[in-house]
C-alpha cells in the first residue's frame, strides 16, 4: 500500500466570510447551539477584520467580517455573499503538507508560517482549490491556547443550548459544467485522496434537471469531499442556480453528524431553522424501500427526515433551506447507522424539493 503523503487528522475548522459576523455568531449560537469560545478583532490587535469562533463537540466554525469596505474579505462578500472561504485541515506537519501538495501541482495561497503567543505556536499554510476556496493546513501540537494565536477566549452572555451536533461528516463543492473531473483529479493527484463513489445524471435527475457528483476521501476517511457539476436538463439545475448566485464555484453544503437526528431536528425546527419539504407520499413505501429501521416512522414523517440504506447499514438525513438570502450555502444533518454512503435513494425526492424552492424563487 502506498504511503499517505498527506495524513489528515480531520477537519480543523471551517471559516465563513459573512456580512455581519457579530449577528451571524448569535444566529449560530441560538439556532444551531454553538458556543462562542474565541474572538479576534481590534481589541486583540487585529485591525482589518473581526472573527468569532464557535464550537460544538468537534466542530469549529469561524465567522469573519471585514472592518473596511476595501480588501479581499470585503471583495469576497460583495461577490459571493456569505459563504465558506477556508476548509482547514488538521495535520501533524503543516510545512510538509504544503510542500507535498505544491510539489504535486497545488497553487499556494500562503506559505508555511509559524504564529506564536503565550500558549505556544501553530504552523499554518494554505493551498487554493475550486473557486476562491482554500485549504489551510493547521499544525497545533505545540499549542495550548483556545484556538489560534491572535484569538482571545470570548464567551457570550447568551447561554447556547447544544443540539447534539458532533463533527463535520462531509463538505460538498459545486463546480462548473465540465470541471468536476478536473477537481476530482486534483484531490487524487495533489492531495492523495481516493475516489469513493460516483453518481451520474441517471442517479441524480428529475423531469427537469440533473447533476453529476463524485465523492473523494482521504486515506483514513476522516475528510470527504463530494464534488458536483450540473448536467444537461430541460431547466436550470440547482447547481447552476448556486453558481449563478455565488458567482462561481464554492462550498454548497456542510453535512454535520448527530447521534439523534430526531432530537437535533426537533430543536432546529423549534428555533426557526427551515428545511426542504418532501411530500408525505415519500413515507408511504419507505419501509419497503429501506427495510427495518430502529426509529418509529411517525416522528421521521413529522420532521420530514429521509432514510436510505446501503450494504453496511442505513442513514437518516435532512437538508436545511439556504441559511442566507442568496440560494447558496445550506446544511445537512446526518445520522449514520452503519451506512457509509450519501443517500442515493433520496436524491430524486430531494431534487424535486429543491426544484419547488427554485420555482418559488423564479430560478428554475
What key attributes describe this structure?
alpha+beta; single chain; Glyas_Fos-R_dOase_dom; 2,3-Dihydroxybiphenyl 1,2-Dioxygenase, domain 1; iron; 364 residues; 17 strands; nine-stranded mixed beta sheet; 24% helix; 2 domains; 35% strand; 9 helices; eight-stranded mixed beta sheet
Topology:
Elements: E1 10-17, H1 21-32, E2 35-40, E3 49-56, E4 59-66, H2 72-80, E5 83-91, H3 94-103, E6 108-117, E7 120-128, E8 134-139, E9 152-153, E10 165-174, H4 180-191, E11 194-199, E12 210-217, E13 224-231, H5 238-246, E14 250-258, H6 261-270, H7 286-290, H8 297-303, E15 306-310, E16 313-319, E17 330-337, H9 347-361
Parallel strand pairs: 1-4, 5-8, 10-13, 14-17
Antiparallel strand pairs: 1-5, 2-3, 2-9, 3-4, 6-7, 7-8, 10-14, 11-12, 12-13, 15-16, 16-17
In the CATH hierarchy, what is the architecture of the largest domain at level 2?
Roll
Principal-axes geometry comes out as: globular
Give the total of domains. Answer: 2
What structural category characterises the helix and strand content?
A: alpha+beta
The count of strands amounts to 17
Indicate the low-confidence ranges by residue numbers: none
Strand proportion: 25-35%
Share of helical residues: 10-25%
Read across the widest sheet, the strand sequence of neighbours is: 6-7-8-5-1-4-3-2-9
Number of helices: 9
Radius of gyration: 20 Å
CATH superfamily of the largest domain: 2,3-Dihydroxybiphenyl 1,2-Dioxygenase, domain 1
Largest sheet: 9 strands, mixed
**Gap from first CA to last CA:** 47 Å
Q: Whole-number average pLDDT?
A: 93
The CATH class of the largest domain turns out to be Alpha Beta
What is the helix/strand order?
Answer: EHEEEHEHEEEEEHEEEHEHHHEEEH
CATH topology of the largest domain: 2,3-Dihydroxybiphenyl 1,2-Dioxygenase, domain 1
Family: Belongs to the 4HPPD family.
Keywords: Dioxygenase, Iron, Metal-binding, Oxidoreductase, Pyruvate, Repeat
GO molecular function: 4-hydroxyphenylpyruvate dioxygenase activity; metal ion binding
InterPro entries: 4OHPhenylPyrv_dOase, 4OHPhenylPyrv_dOase_C, 4OHPhenylPyrv_dOase_N, Glyas_Bleomycin-R_OHBP_Dase, Glyas_Fos-R_dOase_dom, VOC_core
Amino acid at each position: 500500500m502506498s504511503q499517505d503523503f498527506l495524513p489528515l487528522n480531520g477537519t480543523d475548522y471551517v471559516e465563513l466570510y459573512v456580512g455581519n459576523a457579530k449577528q451571524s455568531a448569535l444566529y449560530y449560537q441560538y439556532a444551531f447551539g454553538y458556543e462562542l469560545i474565541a474572538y479576534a478583532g481590534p481589541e486583540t490587535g487585529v485591525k482589518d477584520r473581526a472573527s468569532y469562533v464557535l464550537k460544538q463537540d468537534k466542530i469549529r466554525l469561524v465567522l469573519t467580517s471585514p472592518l473596511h469596505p476595501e480588501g479581499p474579505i470585503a471583495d469576497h462578500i460583495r461577490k459571493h455573499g456569505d459563504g465558506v472561504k477556508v476548509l482547514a485541515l488538521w495535520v501533524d506537519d503543516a510545512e510538509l503538507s504544503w510542500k507535498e501538495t505544491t510539489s504535486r501541482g497545488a497553487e499556494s495561497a500562503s506559505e508555511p508560517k509559524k504564529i506564536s503567543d503565550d500558549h505556544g505556536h501553530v504552523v499554518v499554510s494554505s493551498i487554493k482549490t475550486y473557486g476562491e476556496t482554500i485549504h489551510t493546513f493547521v499544525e497545533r501540537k505545540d499549542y495550548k491556547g483556545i484556538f489560534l494565536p491572535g484569538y482571545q477566549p470570548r464567551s457570550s452572555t447568551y447561554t447556547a443550548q447544544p443540539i447534539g451536533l458532533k463533527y463535520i461528516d462531509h463538505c460538498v463543492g459545486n463546480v462548473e459544467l465540465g470541471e468536476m473531473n478536473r477537481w476530482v483529479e486534483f484531490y487524487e493527484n495533489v492531495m492523495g485522496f481516493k475516489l469513493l463513489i460516483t453518481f451520474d445524471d441517471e442517479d441524480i435527475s428529475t423531469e427537469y434537471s440533473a447533476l453529476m457528483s463524485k465523492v473523494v476521501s482521504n486515506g483514513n476517511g476522516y475528510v470527504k469531499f463530494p464534488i458536483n457539476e450540473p448536467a444537461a436538463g430541460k431547466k436550470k439545475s440547482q447547481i447552476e442556480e448556486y453558481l449563478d448566485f455565488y458567482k462561481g464555484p464554492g462550498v454548497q453544503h456542510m453535512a454535520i453528524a448527530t447521534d439523534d437526528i430526531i432530537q437535533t431536528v426537533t430543536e432546529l425546527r423549534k428555533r426557526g431553522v427551515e428545511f426542504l419539504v418532501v411530500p408525505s407520499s415519500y413515507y408511504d413505501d419507505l419501509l419497503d424501500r429501506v427495510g427495518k429501521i430502529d426509529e418509529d416512522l411517525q416522528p421521521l414523517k413529522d420532521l420530514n427526515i429521509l432514510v436510505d440504506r446501503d450494504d453496511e447499514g442505513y442513514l437518516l438525513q435532512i437538508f436545511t433551506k439556504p441559511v442566507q438570502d442568496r440560494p447558496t450555502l445550506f446544511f445537512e444533518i446526518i445520522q449514520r447507522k452503519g451506512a457509509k454512503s450519501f443517500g442515493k435513494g433520496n436524491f430524486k425526492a430531494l431534487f424535486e424539493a429543491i426544484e419547488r424552492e427554485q420555482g418559488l424563487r423564479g430560478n428554475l
